[in-house]
């Protein structure tokens, strides 16, 4: 069995599972029953989320041309309240 992709002009793309080699160029839409045409797309390719791709790109770029800073980066601010409220009751050093 193989999964084939079709597109209805009204309802969009949908998948149909058929034996290999038996996919027709057109099938009836599973929603409205109108004619849907077969489309071809890249199968099961994972797409990297844009923020992750930017981070990977930046890390790779910094290997060759590291970013130059003009001052020491500020320290991250300390948390005012602990994540667990019971930690506030612990004895202080
Ligand atoms: Zn349809």
UniProtKB/TrEMBL annotation:
InterPro entries recorded: Regulatory_FmdB_Zinc_ribbon
Record domain Putative regulatory protein FmdB zinc ribbon: where: 1-41
SMART domains the record matches: CxxC_CXXC_SSSS
Domain of life: Bacteria
Residue ranges of the region described as Disordered: 58-93
UniProt-recorded name of the protein: Putative regulatory protein FmdB zinc ribbon domain-containing protein
UniProt source species: Planosporangium flavigriseum
